[in-house]
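Our working data are protein records whose layout never changes between entries. An example says more than a description, so a record of this kind follows.
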Amino acid sequence: MNRSDLAVYFIMGTENCKEEPLNVLEDALQAGITMFQFREKGPRALKGEEYVEFARACQRLCNHYHVPFIVNDDVELALKLQADGIHVGQKDMALVNIREQFKGKIIGVSVHNEEEMSKAVLNGADYVGIGPIFKTTSKPDAEPPTGVSFIKEIRNKYPNYPIVAIGGITTENSNEVLQAGADGVAVISAICQSSNRRETVNRFKTKNY
């Protein structure tokens, strides 16, 4: 994985979309997102075979556009689909166990403080997701916002480590995040709720290159 893969990291599930989710994803892929995370959560989230089939459809689109397909939290699904990688939180399976099952795949970890960061590095995560940077509506149980100061702190300590920032990031505030040292931005609402998804992705890309 290159650090540039994190430039515009799109996260999506059916509950995040106002219209057909696969159309939303294809628009984002055509516009040039650099990584996609399948995150199907919430009270009305798909279950069972519908869940697996929706994941497969997202994966097919990502493969077509040569964009890494990452599964959020669900180790079983990621293995079943032979996803390009998995992203886990602090309460999920231990990273060392995941690495055993995902040799040669991308593993990302969410971190909220320095202790979690050093553990992620020590245990071989390929990248970390730091956040929430700003207040977010996409994750009801999100930790309190850290602002960009934590990114600066981590970037100073780990100058070459792949970092993606998440939480309340928009085309208006993404510059602040990138200047603090993040390699890219991970977004849900900014793309899902946009009235012009291609333009939104392009604006994120322009700020990143």
User: Anything to note?
Assistant: The radius of gyration is 16 Å. Residues 3-208 form a domain with the TIM Barrel fold (CATH 3.20.20.70). The chain is about 40% helix and 15% strand.
